[in-house]
Amino acid sequence: MGGLFARYKQPSIVGEMVAGVLLGPAVFNVVHATDPLRGISDLAVFLVVLSAGLEMNSKDVLRAMSGKGLLVALLGFTLPLAAGIGVGALFQLGVMRTVFLGLCVSITALPVAVRILGSFKLLNSEIARYSVVTAIVNDVVSLLALGVILGLPQGGSALDVIIGVMFTGGKLILFAVLVSAFGSLLGWAERRGVAVHRVPERLVAIFGADALFGIVVLLVLVFASVSEVLGFHFVIGAFFGALLINKELFLASRYSELEKTLNSVTSGFLAPVFFAYLGLEFSITKMGSPWFVGIVLVVSLVSKILAGWLGGRLIRLANVDALGLGIILNGRGVMELVIASIALQHGLIGEGLFSTLILMGVVTTILTPMLFRKFVLPHKMLGRNLAAEPAIVSPM
Q: For residue 393, what pLDDT is reported?
């Protein structure tokens, strides 16, 4: 199903989730969610988040926190967050469900945005630059917010929540210090002229080329374990651990081998199992009123497009580029589904809201390339054609 959707220029994760929905209780009732499948799903989550972290660069993240990109990123996150919280308050979902709805509405998945822009050959455009910055900031802030939420006491008083926020904030600062110390150590070594890439090369020489993938996984598992010890979900540590593994740590050929191995294991097997597993847990009968589902879908689309368009116009992008930015930000995909899955496992949301969030992720991810192709791409292609035409010199 993933391959079929990809053939028709749709994200493969949508086809994989559809496969789970068809095989699961929602349609044919052939396959059910089991503990072994849940175990494979957790492993897939780890590798999916590792892959997302490797696609980013810590220097790019720091660069994204400054300049015009930060304005677009903050608007692209806060406006949909407020819209999602507004919908939750309107339907009286309760504090925790409302926060998770807002969080999932506000996310933009970096891998989805990059793949869609790459398919349109626009990775070097202003739309790509600002959408990637927004996706990076959105993913980082969402994972940090997830860490705070999971650290809060359940069912406590307002004072307990305040103390919990302060305690969790302290642990987050400690974790940030550890991550920053590791990153600073690598930077110090580079400035001192140390060939950092020789370390993995030396390990490869001892253990063999196939061990590189295991070495990287082991390093990221250390960060994931520290995250678990501090009371956060392992994906937070895995993400930031992978974020620190810059391309400078490897020779170009070694990094290509690492990406190839990771993609083979993740995209070739584990990630499809994870997204199909999410489809197995989809329940159309528990989704609640059609009004709620419809409003969530409309608000999720409109708020992201509006936020991207406003951000683009504020930094003086052309109107079509600002619209394209807003449309691309709707590609939620991976991170939104990971966070929704974690919330379901911890009992913070029910199956009804979880199913709604899955539907939102599927619909918005499918509509993103369609809307971009219809409303933005013709104008971009026209601009390319005009730029390619030779100038006409009038006779004197």
A: 42
> Alpha carbon 340 to chain centroid distance?
12
Q: Identify the sign of the CA torsion 15, 20, 23, 29.
A: negative
CA 343-238-259 angle, 5° bins: 120
For residue 169, give the nearest of 102, 177, 46 by alpha carbon.
Answer: 177
Q: Please state the pTM of the whole predicted model.
A: 0.76
> Considering only CA atoms, which of 201, 203, 208, 12 is closest in space to residue 112?
12
Cα distances (angstroms) measured from residue 354 to each of 105, 283, 332, 338: 12, 9, 15, 11
Rounded (10°) angle between helices 271-280 and 333-345 = 60
Taking the C-alpha atoms of residue 248 and residue 255, their distance in angstroms, rounded to an integer, is 9
Domains of the chain: 2-381 (1.20.1530.20)
Q: pLDDT, tens digit, for every residue of 136-173?
A: 778 778 877 887 787 766 665 566 667 777 777 787 78
Instruction: For residue 186, give the nearest of 296, 305, 70, 57 by alpha carbon.
Output: 57
Q: Which residues 6+ apart lie within 8 Å of 181 measured at CB? A: none
What pLDDT is attached to residue 251? 62
**What's the pLDDT score for residue 326?**
94
pLDDT score, position 61: 62
Low-confidence residues of the chain, pLDDT below 70? 56-66, 111, 115, 152-161, 195-197, 246-253, 333, 382-396
What is the reported pLDDT for 391?
43
**What amino acid is encoded at 228 in this protein?**
E
Q: Which helix (H) or strand (E) holds 365?
A: helix 351-375
Q: 59-67, long-range: CB within 8 Å, 24+ apart, which pairs?
A: 59/246, 60/136, 61/136, 61/137, 61/140, 61/243, 64/133, 64/136, 64/137, 65/137
Give the CA distances from residue 264 to residues 115, 258, 267, 303, in Å, rounded to whole numbers and listed in that order: 17, 10, 6, 35
Distances (CA, A) of 375 to 72, 80, 213, 379, 381: 21, 21, 42, 8, 11
